[in-house]
Design a protein that fits this description.
heterodimer; A: alpha/beta; Rossmann fold; eight-stranded mixed β-sheet; two-stranded antiparallel ribbon; 12 strands; globular; B: alpha+beta; hypothetical protein PF0899 fold; three-stranded mixed β-sheet; three-stranded antiparallel β-sheet; 5 helices; 6 strands; 26% strand; elongated; binds adenosine-5'-triphosphate; binds magnesium ion; binds zinc ion
Chain lengths: 261, 133
């Protein structure tokens, strides 16, 4: 008889894993380099600071990010119940980089989907209040497959910078998300402004609030360009990252957003 | 020991299909891919242990190894476990044990050096045949 995917152990395991997670926050941007990983990691930090049980799943194959920001390098522990992610600053961190330690992952879409499925099936998060997911940067099949597997009480948080190109890509992503009917929590504008000689200046054109309005999705707020936050993120100092202007701004956004359980 | 999770996942998946088809399972063939270096005897023991009280209790269950074939998409040559996985360190093999697709991160084509490798068979564990009665 035709076995198809119905006899795939991962299809049986994934729903059981996700049933122990109260809420999934998927951070996506479509375009790379706009701060998706930084926003994902910082959301996980803020939630953990509020005493929630938090996991961070990095599905970005383009080099290390979550593992660097959290300063974790140990590979996941193999236990009876699956792979146990290493923990840092109270957050359980699972990332492809923990398996390859900085090596390139020269694989195509089909292989990426297999890896994502396997990680979702094997990772033993235990009980979580939140799983924050740094989504694949593509707007194609790898992203769609991830959305397909990540079922439950789930919300997409979109990140863009106030530039024409980033707006274009995030618009395309919003259309795709609407087509597959995944709920969008709203749009965050990263790198909105910066401090120069005591004054706040806006290096980009802006217009992100209007963009959200055009797509009828909530505008969640803006995050500043914060060199301290970037420094602590790049050097794996999550406790210091917590005390930056970037994190403070993101905390306010989360408190206002209505996403807290 | 994530073998335990995988075997229980396989039994769950088969149970779901048997319930949906509303039929009894008579035979299941489980292919254990060579690439992921599973201990096939451990898989057999786990299957024996976990099938008790499930729809597989009375079925014939065959657990067999499936040889690894990995094709280089650049030059077209095909390779096996011996060329691609055996030369690696224990840690590297452990990563391929979890995620077989990572063979492209740790190995390259012995002939042309390309990392554009495609797993044709022997990836991980899968149900290769199921019969109902
Ligand atoms: N608000 C900010 N202020 C200062 N630096 C920032 C800010 N947001 C992001 N960065 C920096 O910009 C770079 C890119 O950010 P990040 O890696 O989070 O982006 P990404 O969208 O995940 O990109 P990628 O496509 O590489 O995954 C990083 O070095 C990060 O530290
Ligand atoms: Mg990233
Ligand atoms: Zn080759």
């Amino acid at each position: 008889m035709n076995l198809g995917k119905s006899l795939d152990y991962r299809e049986a395991l994934i729903p059981t894993r996700l049933s122990k997670i109260k809420r999934i926050l998927m951070v996506a941007s479509g375009k790379g380099g706009v701060g998706k990983s930084m926003v994902s990691a910082t959301i996980a930090l803020i939630l953990s600071d509020m005493r929630y049980r938090v996991g961070l799943l990095d599905l970005d194959f383009h080099g290390p990010s979550s593992s660097v920001i959290f300063g974790v390098s140990s590979s996941p522990r193999e236990e009876r119940e699956g792979l146990v992610p290493p923990e840092s600053a109270g957050v359980k961190v699972m990332s492809i980089d923990l398996f390859v330690a900085g090596r390139p992952v020269p694989i195509g879409g089909e292989e990426k989907r297999e890896i994502i499925k396997e990680i979702l099936a094997l990772t033993d998060w235990g009980e979580l209040d939140y799983l924050v997911v740094d989504m694949p940067p593509e707007t194609g099949d790898v992203l769609l497959a991830s959305l397909n597997y990540l079922e439950g009480d789930r919300w997409v948080i979109l990140v863009t910078i106030p530039s024409v190109l980033s707006h274009k890509v995030v618009s395309r992503l919003i259309e795709i998300l609407k087509e597959v009917k995944v709920p969008i929590l709203g749009l965050i504008e990263n790198m909105a402004d910066m401090e120069v000689e005591g004054k706040r200046i806006k290096p980009f054109m802006g217009g992100t609030r209007e963009l959200a309005g055009m797509h009828s999705i909530p505008f969640l707020g803006s995050l500043p360009i914060d060199p301290d936050a970037a420094y602590y993120a790049d050097n794996g100092e999550p406790e210091k990252l917590k005390k930056t202007l970037f994190t403070e701004s993101l905390r306010e956004i989360l408190l206002r957003s209505g996403i807290l359980i | 020991m994530h073998e335990l999770v995988i075997v229980s996942g396989i039994i769950d998946a088969i149970t779901q299909v048997a319930e949906r088809e509303n039929k009894k399972v008579s035979l299941v063939r489980i292919a254990v891919g060579e690439l992921a270096s599973f201990d096939i005897n451990l898989i057999r023991e786990l299957v024996e242990l976990l099938r008790k009280g499930t729809c597989l209790e009375e079925a014939e269950v065959i657990v067999e190894e499936e040889g690894a074939v990995v094709r280089c998409k650049t030059c077209g040559m095909s390779w096996g476990f011996k060329e691609l996985v055996e030369p690696l360190s224990e840690d590297e093999r452990e990563m391929i044990h979890f995620l077989p697709e990572l063979v492209s991160s740790f190995s390259k084509c012995p002939s042309c050096g390309s990392r554009d490798l495609e797993i044709e068979s022997g990836r991980g564990i899968r149900v290769s045949q199921i019969e109902f009665r």
